[in-house]
Amino acid sequence: MNKRRTFIKQSSLGVLGISLLPQISIGRNRDLKITILHTNDMHSHIHPFTSGNKKGLGGMAQRAGIINNIRKNEEHVLLLDAGDIFQGTPYFNFYGGELEFKLMSQMRYDAATLGNHDFDNGLEGLEKQLPHANFPFLIANYDFSDTILKDTFQAYKTFNKGGIKIGVFGIGIELKDLVPKHLYGSTIYKEPIKQANHYANLLKKKEKCNLVICLSHLGLKYNNNKVSDMILATQSHDIDLIIGGHTHTFMKEPLSMLNLEGNEVLINQVGWGGINIGKVDFHFSQNGSLKKVFGRSIFVNNRIRRG
User: Among 307, 298, 306, which Cα is nearest to 58's?
Assistant: First the structure.
């Protein structure tokens, strides 16, 4: 991503409006577009909100409709989630996360990472629901070696889309003082920046990935020195995009920061409750070099417009 200009375009769209979006022409040089769709902090919101100023917003069926429409129009799509899938509605209290994982599987998520609330039924509760998820959970800085989840998760995964190799890894927030000890047991937390740089370097240099994505549940920023996505970005090597969660930050467009080499890192997060979907389009030339990026937040709206 050296020395490139990033073009960020903003859009706020409902379910009906998404199909009317003009497609970006790849032109005679036949650029290859990679579309990254992402969510975070769904918190078990299966249906649209039913009251308050969010009434009619969100909903997994509505989100699935938008995603299916995008897949019909785009050839190379990855769908990712940055954690906190669990906790927030009676669906989680009753089903323990089974419904969330089954619906995400039907929506064909490619990967997710773990958020702190995904431990709310303990390691046993998480283990019980994992068979309902047909997508991997990626987490590079939690060590489950001394728990029932030993060898359950992988740190990273690579995807090939049209000859473009994409590496994705996950980074989680420190669980101490955030999650009761008995819920995460002997899970060991590893320093996130060191782990992130290790796996980003592995993906970029050894795996020869054209694009490296970090699924982060660290949070966008804090008023202290707590590690956040913004701190990670400025202290990172080889990460191109950080997809964030935890702080429930509604971002209409990705934030651009510079890493330790002065290269650009994009950060994006789309609030909570399934109200928005993040969409970041990376355009590559035929030789695999990145040319430009377009990012926006897609509004998931089930409200009926009158008049």
Answer: 298
In a domain, 20, yes or no: no
Parent domain of 188: 28-299
Which tens digits make up the pLDDT trace of 34-52?
999 999 999 999 999 999 9
Task: Quickly tell me which residue has 């999650």 as its tokens.
Answer: 179
- Asked whether residue 295 is assigned to any structural domain, the reply reads yes
Q: What is the CA radius of gyration of the chain?
A: 19
Per the structure, the count of domains in the chain is: 1
CA-nearest of 20, 158, 14 to 78 is 158
pLDDT band with cut points at 50, 70 and 90 for residue 280: very high
In three-state secondary structure terms, 288 is coil
pTM: 0.88
- Contacts of residue 305, Cβ cutoff 8 Å, sequence gap at least 6: none
Q: Which residues of 122-147 are buried (b: 16+ CB within 10 A; e: fewer)?
A: bbebbeebeebbebbbbbbbbebeeb
What is the domain-level CATH number for residue 62?
3.60.21.10
Give domain status of residue 97, yes or no. yes
Enumerate residues 6+ apart whose C-beta is below 8 A from 154. Answer: 136, 138
306 belongs to a structural domain: no
Q: Can you tell me which residue has the tokens 């996950």?
A: 170
DSSP calls for 2-59: TT-----------TTTGGGPPPPP-TTTT-EEEEEEEE---TT--SPP-SGGGTTB--
How far is 230 from 168, CA to CA, in rounded Å? Answer: 18
